[in-house]
Automatic annotation (TrEMBL):
Any Gene Ontology biological process: phosphorelay signal transduction system
Pfam families noted in UniProt: Response_reg
Record flagged with keyword Cytoplasm: no
Keyword Protease among record annotations: no
Keywords carried by this UniProt record: DNA-binding, Phosphoprotein
UniProt source species: Paraburkholderia bryophila
Domain Response regulatory residue range list: 11-127
Protein name: DNA-binding NarL/FixJ family response regulator
GO molecular function: DNA binding
Positions carrying 4-aspartylphosphate: 62
Length: 143
């Protein structure tokens, strides 16, 4: 997690069952300016509770999780009308998986092997937009 969290940072929650991959994701995404990693989980039930408690803006999740699936988590988030932006980052990137995730509330879907850099770029873009929106709401547009 970022050592210097900002009240204006894009708050990202990671849901991945493989500890080594989760650590890599946290290091890469947490190094992006304007991003704060606010929590991690390896299974859907724990993630669901922690996402709300962390006030996450974005959840980055895998489809294969301990004790369940990322698709289940997407469905639960949709049922709760959660405002969190869901980004799937998975090795299960076939057309069926992509369509199922997008149908169930994922805003973004990336192949973990070939599109990891694109996912990081997307988080960077979201962080920039989030920061600009915060500055606008604080009145910085009048400067």
């Amino acid at each position: 997690m970022n050592s210097s969290p900002s009240q204006h940072a894009l708050r990202v929650f990671l849901v991945e069952d493989a500890l080594a991959i989760r650590a890599r994701m946290a290091a890469r995404l947490g190094a992006i300016e304007g991003v704060e990693i606010v929590g991690e989980a390896e299974e859907p039930e724990a993630a669901l509770a922690a996402i709300g408690a962390s006030a996450a803006d974005v959840v980055v999740l895998d489809l294969r999780l301990a004790g369940g699936t990322g698709l289940e988590l997407l469905q639960h988030l949709a049922q709760r009308n959660s405002p969190v932006v869901a980004m799937v980052l998975t090795n299960h990137s076939g057309a069926w998986f992509r369509q199922a995730c997008l149908t169930n509330g994922a805003r973004y879907f990336f192949d973990k092997t070939s599109e990891f850099d694109l996912a990081c770029h997307t988080i960077k873009r979201l962080a920039h937009a989030h920061s600009a929106r915060d500055l606008y709401h604080l009145g910085a547009h009048h400067v």
